[in-house]
């Protein structure tokens, strides 16, 4: 796990769209199933509009035929009866596509998307399927997930209308939030730094790292935290305070690496926590020492 607090150095990554996906590809709406309540599928209601409203209650599936579509959505025929009997019932194709896409999406998956909005805090990306057709679902690439290097502005890395490959790093189906990352598709420079350093015995632990040790010691499930090796980089790659859970297997615990300025400090943690629980604990620790 690698979590950063702050910003890395300026970086620009502009280029052509990924192969196999042209810009602004749009396809005609496919045949679509209308999400509806199972009980409503057998509803005795005579009024087609009332029956259609009943169909929208629970989110299960009833078969319908699309008779037309417009910018607002789809006009659907249910049980052979035209819903225009009282008024047109327009079911949003976009919402239906988004619901299905959200249900299929999983953390760790690499997907393609088009940058549709730029904000100070990150880039909004509209996800595309394997035919480059919009799924009706958007996700956020937070500013810190754009690059391992420092990002002064979002425009330093991406531009409006650019098609990019991104990694899904979080899916909240309740809030319909999707978190994406560009930098997760590239090697973490901190790992390369760790592997190439000349480590030595710890001389003095920086104050920022002492604070991390203190917070770790107050975390449930952690029994001891002690300094391990130390290294000093020739130049500062980032101004962030970074905390990394290494892959080193230790009896009854884990090895962490903290970067503070040019100093890399190894911490040995004795804990009963699993690796996943340890990652969650480190996220909470960093939020407290910011």
Task: Give a description of the structure.
This is S1 motif domain-containing protein. One of its GO terms (molecular function) is nucleic acid binding. InterPro entries: NA-bd_OB-fold (IPR012340), Ribosomal_protein_S1 (IPR052757), S1_domain (IPR003029). The chain has 290 residues and is of the alpha+beta class. Strand 8 and strand 9 (122-128) form a beta hairpin. It has helices at 38-41, 48-55, 93-104, 189-196, 207-217, 275-289; strands at 2-5, 34-35, 61-62, 65-70, 73-78, 81-82, 90-91, 110-119, 122-128, 134-142, 163-172, 177-181, 200-201, 222-232, 241-250, 253-260, 263-271. The strands form 4 sheets. Strands 1-15-16-17-14-13 form a 6-stranded antiparallel beta sheet. The chain is elongated and about 75 Å long. The protein is built from 6 helices and 17 strands. The two termini are 17 Å apart. The chain has 3 domains: 34-91, no CATH class; 99-185, Beta Barrel (OB fold (Dihydrolipoamide Acetyltransferase, E2P)); 189-289, no CATH class. The model is unreliable at 1-16, 24-46 and 82-91 (pLDDT under 50).
């Amino acid at each position: 796990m690698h979590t950063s607090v702050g910003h890395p150095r300026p970086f620009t990554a502009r280029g052509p769209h990924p192969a196999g996906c042209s810009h602004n590809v749009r396809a005609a709406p496919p045949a679509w199933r209308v999400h509806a309540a199972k009980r409503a599928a057998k509803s005795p209601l005579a009024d087609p509009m009332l029956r259609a409203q009943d169909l929208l209650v629970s989110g299960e599936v009833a078969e319908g035929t699309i008779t037309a579509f417009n910018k607002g959505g789809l006009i659907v025929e249910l049980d052979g009866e035209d819903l225009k009997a009282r008024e047109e019932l327009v079911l949003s194709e976009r919402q239906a596509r988004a619901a299905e896409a959200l249900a299929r999406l999983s953390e760790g998956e690499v997907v393609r998307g088009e940058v549709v909005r730029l904000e100070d805090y990150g880039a909004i990306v509209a996800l595309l399927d394997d035919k480059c057709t919009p799924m009706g679902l958007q996700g956020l690439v937070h500013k810190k997930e754009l690059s391992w290097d420092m990002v002064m502005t979002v425009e330093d890395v991406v531009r409006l209308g650019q098609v990019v490959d991104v990694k899904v790093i979080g899916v909240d189906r309740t809030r319909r939030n999707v978190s994406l990352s560009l930098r997760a598709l590239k090697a973490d420079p901190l790992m390369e730094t760790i592997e190439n350093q000349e480590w030595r015995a710890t001389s003095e632990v920086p104050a920022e790292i002492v604070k991390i040790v203190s917070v770790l010691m107050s975390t449930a499930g952690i029994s001891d935290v002690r300094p391990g090796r130390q290294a000093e980089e020739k130049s500062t790659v980032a101004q962030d305070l970074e905390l990394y859970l290494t892959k080193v297997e230790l009896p009854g615990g884990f090895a962490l690496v903290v970067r503070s300025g040019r100093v890399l400090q190894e911490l040995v943690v004795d804990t009963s926590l699993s690796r996943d629980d340890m990652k969650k604990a480190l996220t909470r620790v960093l939020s407290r020492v910011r």
